[in-house]
Amino acid sequence: MTKHTIISLAVACGILFGALPEVAHAQEVQITGPLAGQSSVRHMRVYREGRVQLAPFANFTLQDEFSRTIGFGATLSYHLTDWFGIGAWGFFAPIHIDTALTDQVVQTGQTTDRNALSLPQRGLFNQQIGNIDWAAALQLTFIPLRGKLSLFQKIFLDADLYISLGFGFVGVSERADVTSESGFCATAPSPTAPANDDCVATQTARASRVAPAPTFAVGLSIYANEYMALNLEWRAMPFAWNTSGTDEGGRNELGVADNSGAFPDHAISSADRAFHLNHMFIIGWSFYLPSHARISE
User: pLDDT grade, residue 41 (50/70/90)?
Assistant: First the structure.
């Protein structure tokens, strides 16, 4: 090996090892001076810890098939910490508004062969649909995030994001059950012919029941001052019910009503209930007691 070859290899190795990255060594950052040992946030308003929250609200349901529910209620909570609270939530619904789909059924009915029990008279369809009358639940509330909202870089408002999880009950008004033994509504003579009087009588008969349902919500609280806040919330209460009041399910070979049975079974029963998310939007205004928020160190 010549002298020039040895020199060339040495230069090449130097370039190669010089291009490799250096091994990184972690180093603990030591804070010294007046910031040593201090908390990340100081002199912060503690809006929730140790305070009672009363929040009256108005709500309306979303994505309704046949009837929109408008209700009024309140949330009552006590917050053990600034990020966790327990409480009760509920509303009653005195207002129900038919959707465009319901109006269309009332106006045009059906144009194909039908089970007369589902729609004896098209003009009475809006009286057979289901409605939510009230709801109530116990819940846990978690506040994972808080910060400030800026309006035009001039007005700054405290805000927090909360999540609620709970379990409750819903008061539902539905079309009353009609057993298959009645038989008089099994068929219609033609798509446009009126059903008999006994069949029509089943269309307006109502029954109320209480449906158990979990509930979960996500909301934003925007604080106007230290004891009042605006609440914007989305909430869902999933359960099964017959929103249309029509024959949607059947009975199995054992005669038990369920959605796996023969359809139609010419009866209105629990087999006709379908699962719905039943979600709603809520606008509320919170009041906190005591009226003065604690200031952190």
Answer: low
Neighbours of 156 (CB within 10 A): 10
Domains of the chain: 45-295 (2.40.160.20)
Provide the mean pLDDT of the chain: 82
CA distance 73 to 93: 9
The average pLDDT across 260-275 equals 77
DSSP state at residue 263 = S
CA 130 vs. chain centroid, Å, equals: 19
Question: Virtual CA dihedral for 239, 244, 249, 251, nearest 10 degrees?
Answer: 90
Model confidence, pTM: 0.78
- Please answer whether residues 172 and 132 qualify as being in contact, where contact means their C-beta atoms are separated by less than 8 angstroms: yes
**Phi/psi at 14 (nearest 5 deg)?**
-65, -40
Under DSSP, the state recorded for 80 is S
Supply the DSSP symbol for 58: E
Tokens found for residue 131: 């409605």
Q: Residue 248: which residues within 8 A CB-CB, separation 6 or more?
A: 242, 259, 263, 271, 272, 273, 274
Other Cβ atoms less than 10 A from the Cβ of 223: the count is: 21
Predicted confidence band at 211 (pLDDT cuts at 50, 70, 90)? very high
**DSSP string for 80-99:** SSSSEEEEEEEEEEEEEEE-
Q: Bigger pLDDT: 289 or 8?
A: 289
Q: How many CB atoms sit inside 10 A of residue 254's CB? A: 7
- Would you say 187 and 116 are in contact if contact means Cβ atoms under 8 Å apart? yes
Dist. CA 258–CA 270, nearest whole Å: 7
Q: Which two tokens stand for residue 229?
A: 């806040």
Res 237 pLDDT > 60: yes
For the record, the structure tokens of 50 come out as: 């140790």
Q: Can you tell me whether residue 153 is helix, strand or coil? A: coil
